[in-house]
């Protein structure tokens, strides 16, 4: 479906969109849509608020209704893996964060410039609350049911003396936020007296109460929270991701209220993947206008798309599209905008 049909004839094309997401999830034995069973067991961790029938699983695949009780992911058990990235890393926020720039030195950074000699603990959660058809980390879907559970204490122990920051991503940390929050608190307690930043890359669909806990952890440690704002139009969002963007935008607005508590070091960062044919200057202008209305100094990164998962028939983002989107973001009033992974851009 083209973007014009999705925006202007959404009700007509919605059955086709639902069918596409059903097919995307079927090979991984994931529910085609968030379960809403009457009398089911409800999970409120993310926007989907699954009401899971007896013996069935949640949309993310992590929780099962077993005799009226939820089993699976908890604050102590998660499907998660990790690795170390030398700083500066490929983090979308490295152009404004302490690890890539020395911002916040000496309170939140080990060096006045790039933190050479230190590393980021990159924590990959093997599940997601969305169903992005262009997902560039789609392989996690195979691991939701097969990977062993990992305790929060084991994850916290992965922090060593050269770890300057922890970044939770995935998939998405949202479905397993209780685990990430608990592991963060354990790691900070075990490393009292030194810098250990807590950072997040997320689709922003979590319950607001969990977001507030994330904000406090990042504020106090010198970390940041990066929201992936995938589109501005709700129909485009649903078509690409299977889920509405209303909770994400509400949570972004909520988090913007924390900025003044640490104005010299960005807490909130945004990014958008420039999907050819779907996320161009019109979508970016809407997103950038929304961000600017909250605070024009919020950093915003535009990222080049490359074909992956079920959208391999699309081209890589062109230089022309990237420059049009960059100009649209600046015209909307944002003062800190950049193009990321420009090596991917095609002529």
Protein architecture, described:
Helix 2 (about 10-25) packs parallel to helix 7 and helix 5 packs parallel to helix 6 (about 210-220). A hairpin with a 2-residue loop joins strand 3 and strand 4 (about 70). It is built from 10 helices and 14 strands. It is globular and about 55 Å long. It has an 8-stranded mixed beta sheet. The protein has a two-stranded antiparallel sheet with strand order 1-2. The two termini are about 25 Å apart. Helix content is about 30%, strand content about 20%. The mean pLDDT is about 95. The protein is of the alpha/beta class.
Short characterization:
By secondary structure, this protein is an alpha/beta fold. The chain is 30% helix and 18% strand.
Order of helices and strands: HHEEEEEEHEEHEHEHEHHEHEHE
Distance, first to last CA = 25 Å
Number of helices: 10
Radius of gyration: 20 Å
Structural category: alpha/beta
Oligomer: single chain
Q: What portion of residues is helical?
A: 25-40%
Question: What integer is the average pLDDT?
Answer: 96
Biggest beta sheet summary: 8 strands, mixed
How many individual β-strands? 14
Going across the biggest sheet, name each strand in turn.
6-7-9-10-11-12-13-14
Question: What portion of the residues fall into strands of 2 or more residues?
Answer: 15-25%
Task: Report low-confidence residues grouped into runs of 5 or more.
Answer: none
- Shape from CA axes? globular
Layout of SSEs?
Layout: H1 3-8, H2 10-25, E1 41-42, E2 51-52, E3 63-66, E4 69-72, E5 77-78, E6 80-86, H3 98-101, E7 119-125, E8 150-151, H4 152-156, E9 163-170, H5 177-190, E10 197-202, H6 208-221, E11 225-228, H7 234-241, H8 246-256, E12 268-274, H9 281-294, E13 300-304, H10 319-331, E14 337-340
Parallel strand pairs: 7-9, 9-10, 10-11, 11-12, 12-13, 13-14
Antiparallel strand pairs: 1-2, 3-4, 5-8, 6-7
Helix pairs in contact: 2-7, 5-6, 9-10
